[in-house]
């Protein structure tokens, strides 16, 4: 009989590529992970791994077994969901991952409603960039997460996860509106940026300094790729993750930026916001098979009620992006 815990290790190895990365993610020692995978190979009776330097590559048998592991783990999530539904009332913790804009604008109303409906359910929120969500959902560190994807940032499905649509919002080009508020040294740049806002196009901002999120985040990749699609590479001056701070910097002439609608809900004076033909889509992600869990279903309902008619219509769960 194949051990489910060892199948989880093999699944994580297929994503992470090294024994050390799996050990770090699951808080094991590398030797313990190696021993468990060796035991799984003995159980399977065939070689599952091939070592190439520091990395470990799955054999065809190993790849096939990961596919079966995904199906087994999905059924276990479904079983846990059905057992939870059989209990009376919702209680315990639900671990939620959310990106900063969602933490500020979407979650408060949803958590307030959840608390009124299910006072014994304790939500625990961890602010996290969507790029880090998938591994933390797979390992059970999170139960559910809000993730987003942008135009120009293609994502590939993660077979361990499902997701449901929540919200779609436009993107805006943020440029300084009042050159007089800036220093003499930046006046020419700011005037050009204000002119760019009038044109409402990314190419008009090709010579401006840009304010972007930290490298490695989806927001950073979105800005860089959107500019590349417009025919130029952005000249990055600042790396700032908080959209409120980004707009404050735009207002004083420190650069231009791309911001989503939720991030631009309360812009400071001195900022022009020009809508662009780009979108950001927010989804509710969870482990495959866990969507019917009462706690996740209750949070999903509260989130959708909170965003109102701007939410997408309910639909079937689809494989979540590898975010």
Automatic annotation (TrEMBL):
Name of the molecule in the record: LysR family transcriptional regulator
Source organism per UniProt: Planobispora rosea
Family annotation (PROSITE patterns): HTH_LYSR
Family designation: Belongs to the LysR transcriptional regulatory family.
InterPro entries: ArsR-like_HTH, LysR_HTH_N, LysR_subst-bd, WH-like_DNA-bd_sf, WH_DNA-bd_sf
HTH lysR-type domain segment(s): 2-59
Pfam families: HTH_1, LysR_substrate
Example GO molecular function: DNA-binding transcription factor activity
Keyword terms of this UniProt record: DNA-binding, Transcription, Transcription regulation
Listed GO CC annotations: protein-DNA complex
């Amino acid at each position: 009989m194949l051990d489910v815990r060892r199948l989880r290790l093999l699944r994580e190895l297929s994503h992470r590529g090294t024994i050390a990365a799996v050990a770090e993610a699951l808080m094991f020692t590398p030797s313990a992970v190696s021993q468990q995978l060796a035991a799984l190979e003995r159980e399977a009776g065939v070689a599952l791994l091939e070592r190439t330097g520091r990395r470990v590559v799955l054999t065809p048998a190993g790849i096939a077994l990961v596919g079966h592991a995904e199906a087994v783990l999905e059924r276990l999530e479904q079983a846990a969901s059905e057992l939870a539904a059989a209990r009376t009332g919702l209680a315990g913790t639900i671990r939620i991952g959310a990106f900063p804009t969602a933490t500020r604008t979407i979650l408060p109303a949803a958590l307030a409603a959840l608390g009124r409906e299910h006072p014994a359910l304790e939500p625990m929120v961890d602010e996290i960039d969507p790029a880090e969500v998938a591994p933390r959902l797979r390992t059970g560190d999170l139960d559910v997460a809000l993730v987003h994807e942008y135009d120009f940032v293609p994502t590939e499905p993660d077979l361990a996860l499902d997701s449901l649509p929540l919200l779609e919002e436009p993107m805006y080009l943020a440029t300084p509106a009042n050159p007089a508020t800036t220093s003499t040294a930046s006046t020419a740049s700011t005037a050009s940026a204000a002119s760019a806002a009038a044109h409402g196009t990314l190419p008009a901002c090709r010579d401006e300094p840009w304010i972007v999120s930290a490298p490695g985040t989806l927001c950073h990749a979105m800005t860089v790729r959107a500019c590349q699609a417009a025919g130029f590479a952005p000249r990055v001056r600042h790396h700032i993750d908080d959209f409120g701070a980004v707009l404050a910097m735009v207002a004083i002439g420190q650069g231009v930026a791309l911001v989503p609608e939720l991030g631009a809900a309360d812009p400071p004076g001195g900022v022009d916001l020009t809508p662009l033909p780009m979108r950001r889509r927010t989804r509710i992600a969870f482990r495959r098979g866990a969507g019917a869990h009462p706690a996740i279903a209750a949070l999903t309902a509260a989130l959708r009620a909170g965003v109102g008619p701007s939410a997408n219509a309910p639909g079937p769960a689809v494989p979540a992006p590898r975010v």
